Amino acid sequence: MRTVGIVVEYNPFHNGHYYHVQQSRKKTGADAVVAVMSGHFLQRGEPALLDKWTRAEMALRGGCDLVLELPVAYSTQSAEWFARGAVATLDATGVVDTLCFGSESGDIESFCAAAELLHEEPASFKQALNERLAEGVPYPAAYEWALSTHAAKQGIPPLAVAQPNNSLGLHYTLAVKRMGSPIAPFTIRREKSGYNDQTPSDESIASATAIRKLLLEAGDLEAARPFVPKTTIALMQRERDKGLIAADWRLFEKQLIHSILTRSVEELGHIHEMTEGLEHRLLHTVRQLDEVRFEPLLEQLKTKRYTRTKLQRALLAVLLGHTKRELAPGKLAEGPGYIRVLGFTSKGQSLLRQMRKSSRWPVLMSAARAPEQLPYLSLDIRATAVYALARNPNASSRDLLRDYYEQPIRIADDSSPSEQ
């Protein structure tokens, strides 16, 4: 069975995602689609709107056959480690032949050429990058400038890696190259809406950012209906009927402030993403706040060097208690070390049977049956507890420890496909 892997967040699953799934299958000639999906917390340092099991069901009803969790140790990282964790997971299954990602470029040759240049990061590239960073240029722009400078010397056309999908695409391609994986990369041009577009610009396609804004500001599912499949609306309504609140940073404010104020500056300094004395700035800023809320805190922390995304990741690391020791690059380079199954169709179940023989890592259907010595899994369990407590003030211990009880979502292949 020819299988394509995709890396997703589905926050929430929308019509553009449906297009990506279908085009990935078509472009690679795949019989099945395996999605590696972020759990409760995402790459830009934000909580997911809905829990990982609900979003996995959206994916399955939208055309994916098997949904695997990208551990929180990787899902909340910069592009390099986010991509490394996702590609390592797909590679470890032993059943994925290709990887297909969306990009602003749409030209896989440019990604492969850039990956060929950077897979060992030449000294000249590192020097150019550090020079730009020393001038106070934000990391994405500095990285693009360094790559363009280095590529020009080699006679290779530049790649606009400051654009978010291009950046991730480059790092997926780099991860494949650096790991020596047999997975073949493909890309599809992103159409009609940009990654960070705040408002819809098309009658049926909008960015996840724009859709979240509609949902959180309007508070009405109908506002999102033109831009998402019917199954997404139905699943969001099901969550509302349970009394579960759509999550954003506002739900985590009290937990976050408590996590900051109950740590000393030395303890904060050991937290992942705390660099260049950010722990001092953070503690001082919290103590000076007139309004103890997330947005005022973020606004006062922001500088030219500290972007919103960088700060969100740092604050999320504080909230979740992620330390520099736990997320050391040497450890991250080894990969998650396990494959967590969130859901599957009948076709996905066939892939799981193949994976019993082909997978290099343990395949987990629930945390309760996990072998010992899986440190990143303990971070996932902790993340679920933090997420559940914020989203449901009346959460039970079973809700907090849901990873131990929840079985993967199962969808029959003859279920109705996602309707546009």
Question: What's this entry about, in short?
Answer:
It is built from 20 helices and eight strands. The protein has helices spanning 15-28, 52-61, 72-75, 79-93, 108-118, 123-134, 139-153, 164-179, 208-218, 230-241, 253-261, 265-269, 278-288, 294-301, 308-320, 329-332, 346-358, 375-391, 397-400, 402-405, and strands spanning 3-8, 32-38, 66-70, 98-103, 184-189, 339-345, 363-364, 409-411.
β-strand number: 8
Number of helices: 20
Strand content: 5-15%
Mean pLDDT: 91
CATH architecture of the largest domain: 3-Layer(aba) Sandwich
CA-atom Rg in angstroms: 21 Å
The helix content, as a percent range, equals 40-55%
Decide which structural class fits the backbone. Answer: alpha/beta
SSE pattern, N- to C-terminal: EHEHEHHEHHHHEHHHHHHHHEHEHHHE
What profile does the largest beta sheet have? 8 strands, mixed
Q: Please identify the oligomeric state.
A: single chain
Domains (count): 2
Coarse morphology: globular
Uncertain stretches of 5 or more adjacent residues: none
CATH fold node name of the largest domain: Rossmann fold
Span between termini: 27 Å
CATH class of the largest domain: Alpha Beta
Can you identify the CATH superfamily of the largest domain?
HUPs
